[in-house]
Amino acid sequence: MVKVNENYLKLEKNYLFINIAKKVNAYKAAHPEADIIRMGIGDVTLPICKAAVDAMKKGADEMGVKETFKGYEDSGAGYDFLREAVSGYYKSFGVDVPADDIRINDGAKADCGNIVDIFGDDNTILITDPAYPVYVDSNRMSGRKVIFADSDESNGFAAMPDENVKADIIYLCSPNNPTGSAYTKAQLKEWVDYANKNGSVIIYDAAYEAFITEDDIPRSIYAIEGAKTCAIEMCSLSKTAGFTGMRCGYTVVPEELKAKASDGSEVSLKQLWNRREGSKFNGVSYPVQCAAAAVFTPEGQQQIKVNIEYYQNNAKTIAAALDELGIKYTGGKNSPYIWLKCPNGMGSWEFFDLLLEKANVVGTPGAGFGKNGEGWFRLTSFGDKDRTVEAMERLKKILA
Fold first, then answer.
1. Is 172 in contact with 142 (CB distance < 8 Å)?
2. 105-141 pLDDT, tens per residue?
3. Residues 382, 388, 394, 399, CA torsion sign
4. Closest Cα to residue 129, out of 94, 97, 176?
5. How far is residue 115's CA from residue 131's CA, in Å, rounded to a whole number?
6. pLDDT value at 196 more than 70
7. Domains along the chain?
8. For residues 37 and 362, is the Cβ–Cβ distance under 8 A?
9. What is the largest CA-CA distance in the chain?
């Protein structure tokens, strides 16, 4: 008789955003007249920039001509033109990442979960809490031991390493999803030093680096001395360039990053990751990679900057409303997310229900991101400008 992976039975029955969708759909069915404004899921609303669209069309046209048709990409790591473009993008903010250390993927979420394939199941995983659910779920699916570092109001939702706690793999996200907090250079240096001292590997999610506005917040962990011997970095075009429906991102595994096998021999994690991807992933389509490369051109960068500023202005609108109401929050400044403290001591799902029923606004309950998320709530700035203004007017009306 077939046996299931019983680690899945230990997970929540549904993914967080499925539970939210069920609640919203039930309310909508009961109140079809309701004008619901969705500020929960972190999906963009502005279209892909013209430079990317034009490049994708050109790539699709090339696929229809025998002389320029593309089948499997030889290395499986992504076309050289895109990896070189990503490498050049790193150089634009002062970080040296060779193209050969970069692999193109179909978005950061998949690689954040898949990267653990190259590590043993007996590793201890340290995750800052609150956390993006994929970090926790992908490791619990494999039965790994998961421990947490508390990110809470007392430390500005920026957990720091504890020398009394030993972890093999560490997940960090900066700017953070869901809290919007971001590590300074000095704080990241502490994590890098901890990892190198303990032989740990940091899985660094930089999906929101394009939203950083402050000079002391690194755009990449490789801006920190010593990071290439302890860190794997993942980034995505989903939020920076509107690729949520296109699916493209990249993972960096430095040549310098090594680990020890059980026989004491030194193993290249880059080689292991390449081997894993060669067996389980056939790469991102050629037209999508063409579009992604266009994002890193001067024209593409200028166009996505306009979109990012649009979302940043939405974040300012949300922040201004919360300031007016006297509600504590983090995020918004270096992140598209606003992480607010639920008013009047309300629980996060309680506040979700209040906001849905009294204001017809949907957000994300902090409890869905971990125990330190209880009592907090995430709003996204990825919506329409006018709808964001309207949502904040409704919020102020019910909370004033």
1. no
2. 998 888 988 999 999 999 999 999 999 989 999 999 9
3. positive
4. 176
5. 17
6. yes
7. 14-43+300-399 (3.90.1150.10), 50-296 (3.40.640.10)
8. yes
9. 66
